[in-house]
Specification:
Two copies of one chain form a homodimer.
Chain A: H1 18-26, E1 30-31, H2 34-39, E2 54-57, H3 61-74, E3 78-81, E4 98-101, E5 108-112, E6 117-121, H4 126-133, E7 138-139, H5 150-155, H6 163-166, H7 169-172, E8 173-179, E9 185-187, H8 201-205, E10 214-221, E11 223-224, E12 228-235, H9 239-251, E13 258-262, H10 264-274, E14 283-290, H11 292-308, E15 315-317, H12 320-331, H13 333-340, E16 345-348, H14 358-370, E17 376-381, E18 386-393, H15 398-417, H16 436-455
Parallel strand pairs in A: 2-4, 3-4
Antiparallel strand pairs in A: 1-2, 5-6, 6-10, 7-11, 8-9, 8-10, 12-14, 12-15, 13-14, 13-17, 16-18, 17-18
Helix pairs in contact in A: 9-11, 9-14, 10-13, 14-15
InterPro entries (chains A, B): FAD-bd_oxidored_4_C (IPR004113), FAD-bd_PCMH (IPR016166), FAD-bd_PCMH-like_sf (IPR036318), FAD-bd_PCMH_sub2 (IPR016169), FAD-linked_Oxase-like_C (IPR016164), Oxid_FAD_bind_N (IPR006094), Vanillyl_alc_oxidase_C-sub2 (IPR016171)
GO biological process, one term (chains A, B): lactate catabolic process
EC number (chains A, B): 1.1.2.4
């Protein structure tokens, strides 16, 4: 593991008898085996693992509350664990303590098709959810690259390729069941589409990364499966013309469902990894949802814009299976990138800027990266102004990691100067804590500290993450 | 004024020299004149006025911070004041103190047309905003009945007739400038369309009703003016068939921009007050936004649904001026209702329920109301599951007020049993505090208390509102 990305944290002592009490309560759903702890001490981030002292496999909200009370009483850290697909070190037990595995809580609790809502336990994954509701004619559009759990997606305010049309978890979570640090169980809201009744606890927990409470149930909005769907690839001579096209499409208000950017390296990596034969130049992947007439109209408008910007003719993915293959490849772009450089790890950036600044931000960043000593790819949910750089690093070469950190720091500085954010959808975790002060300022950060202190006075919930020490 | 709707609150003593210091600092922008205090001690709610001890007309965020520091140091209540159009008693100075009039902060700070955002000072009203940005081809869709200020709309999480398509202030506020209780100035977010960087302070202040901070600037999303707009009226034989039509339209996913319900009494009141000649039966007002083809398609789908439910043929408002007249009449429906019973005051309900329960909720409520001794009208943003009953009461008859409170209580109980909320868009203020415990439960309410305590330990910000005493 690289020696550059480290965390400074002290493991807290575990009081005598603490682990034994968990074992007595949970039986074989509690483990201190090294292999189990190792699995729960790592994610997709490039950090060295940080193992919890024990792992509980929870089956009910009441069990989660029991664990929270037990941990809170003894001031032992408690880290919620779902798919383990974080890129930012969210689930590492940097202060030790208990990892709470919620993947066994994977039941769809209530489908309210008439209201376009569904309530699921936190461990349900996005693919499982869509499989289980397929017959209703509804779907849940949010799709981070990984098959993440709904609980994890809510906790990191995740989004994905459909957010440009359907919004992020911020807009799509209607209500949460949450266990507080001291083991109380609350429901943050009802199921009405809007409410002005009190502080927005739902959105306070969405994006709180397990630091304010443990999410055990998630109620989200669903959408009617569109009558017509079409998808197309559009190649461009360069990065600038692709990004400029997106800016114009958004400014025109075209309700495009997906518009994803891949740079040349990402296209090559995807062709190799996913056995596609995309034309090898920077490109945009589009998907249009609507009535047959509406989809046709959107596609025509978009083609006029891309063509005026030097884009090539659309290559249509006519059949559902072609579309699935295309989007599966897009979702695998992270792994495709890693394969560009066998044995590498990726340090992945996630800035998001106002769309008017997107071209500048991407171009200046690409210029920086072209001078770097390692390969990279650029992928982007560019309709939202959000893009990722995968920097493909030799895990054993500290110089590369230092270089990548410098590039990331200057990228974030650039994004913040453009009124953007250091993270559009991956969250803060460990890796972006250093940017919180620059992004929010001392006074706003102090308010976040005050919320944390009010909700979790013993600092047991995912300690050492998100909010940097004052 | 009625003797039934009262507030229990103690006026706090004003320390010697406190008002004089404000006078010295603000000159003629500070007033203790009775007429000025009276204007700032009342709103559109039926409560008797509660006068502040003095009124400051703020011109800058820094001035707001100065007032906050001064009030906080002396533990004097501070109540933000905008258009004064609250229906729930939000701006009444029930514990005395200072009313902070923000209507002079009415400047559009930055139009970022390319990013579809605008930043305004808190005192800008929705109509002023749309007038000032008209030339950009963009518009801000949210339209509470009154010409409210953007600051007030953010503070109450307001919405209006367009929310079914464009969302509420929850979805449309991108960032806020806020003065904290102790006079610090924070910006809650940048201008990126999405972010996963830390707790969602923006949405914590949206809907906080002036109890957590004073909003001085608001950045909201804008939308391209639709290429085509059409509006139509559809009459129904009864309430049930109208509401059932709406449920089916929403479940089909038709992106209707507006769908408003008026019961027979509301139609009659509107014809009389706004000099219209609407056919007098329960009706729906529709508006469709999109391309010419898209609008036609939406209208056809909706007509099929309404017609299958017994709706009459659409009456189209073809010309822009006809549409403006129709929607102006809808926005005046509150005043039209009051004119049904000259000299009356309205107690206005605001429940919102999941759409599958909307017909039941409206019908059971209408049955209750038909037994009441006073006239009423029902109006609704029914696409969101939200409707208002205007109960037109004799201000001097305590029996009517008691009766209206009983009806409102059973309406809210019904809505909560349906997983709805006591307020879809008007906020809690004074009048709905009694429902907060039933809606949220003790533990969630305790978390709200904890936030309030953390942000405003001296309880100077709009005290006596929203969160009932523990």
């Amino acid at each position: 593991m690289n020696a550059v990305l480290q965390y400074q944290a002290q493991r807290r002592p575990i009081p005598a008898g603490f682990l034994e009490a968990l074992g007595a309560h949970f039986g074989d759903r509690f483990s201190t085996a090294h292999s189990v702890r190792d699995h729960h001490g790592r994610d997709e981030s490039p950090y060295p693992p940080a193992l919890p002292d024990g792992v509980v496999y929870a089956a009910t909200t009441e069990e989660v509350a029991w664990v929270a009370r037990h941990c809170n009483e003894h001031k032992v850290p408690l880290v919620a664990f779902g798919a383990g697909s974080s890129l930012e070190g969210h689930v590492l037990a940097v202060e030790g303590g208990i990892s709470l595995d919620l993947t066994g809580m994977n039941r769809v609790v209530a489908v309210n098709a008439e209201d376009l809502t569904v309530t699921v336990q936190a461990g349900v994954t996005r693919k499982q959810l869509n499989a289980e509701i397929r017959d209703t004619g509804l779907f849940f559009p949010l799709d981070p690259g990984a098959d993440a759990t709904l609980g994890g997606m809510a906790a990191t305010r995740a989004s994905g390729t459909n957010a440009v049309r359907y919004g992020t978890m911020r807009e799509n979570v209607m209500s949460l069941k949450v266990v507080t640090a001291d083991g109380r169980i609350i429901q943050t809201a009802g199921r009405a589409r809007k409410s002005s009744a009190g502080y927005d606890l739902t959105r306070l927990f969405v994006g709180s990364e397990g630091t304010l409470g443990i999410i055990t149930e998630v109620t989200v909005r669903l959408y009617p499966q569109p009558e017509a769907v079409s998808a197309a690839v559009c190649n461009f001579p360069d990065l600038h013309s692709a990004v400029q096209s997106v800016i114009e499409i958004i400014q025109m208000g075209v309700p495009v469902a997906r518009v994803e950017f891949m740079d040349l390296a990402a296209v090559k990596a995807t062709n190799a990894y996913s056995k596609l034969s995309l034309h090898e130049s920077p490109l945009l992947l589009f998907e249009f949802h609507g009535s047959p007439g509406g989809v046709r109209e959107q596609a025509e408008t978009v083609q006029e814009i891309t063509s005026a910007n030097g884009g090539m003719a659309f290559e249509w993915a006519e059949h559902p299976e072609d579309r699935s293959r295309l989007w599966a490849a897009r979702h695998d772009a992270y792994f495709a990138g890693l394969h560009l450089r066998p044995g590498s790890r990726s340090s992945t950036t996630d800035v998001c800027v106002p769309i008017s600044r997107l071209a500048d931000c991407v171009l200046e960043t690409a210029a920086d990266l072209d001078r770097a000593s390692f390969p990279y790819t650029i992928l982007g949910h560019v309709g939202d102004g959000n893009f990722h750089v995968l920097m493909l690093l030799d895990p054993d070469n500290p110089l590369e990691w230092q270089e990548s950190e410098r590039i990331n720091q200057s990228l974030v500085t650039r994004a913040l100067q453009m009124q953007g954010t250091c993270t559009g959808e991956h969250g803060i975790g460990l890796h972006k804590m250093e940017f919180m002060l620059a992004e929010h300022g001392r006074d706003a950060l102090d308010l976040m500290h005050a919320v944390k202190q009010a909700f979790d006075p013993n600092n047991i919930l995912n300690p050492g993450k998100m909010i940097p020490p004052a």
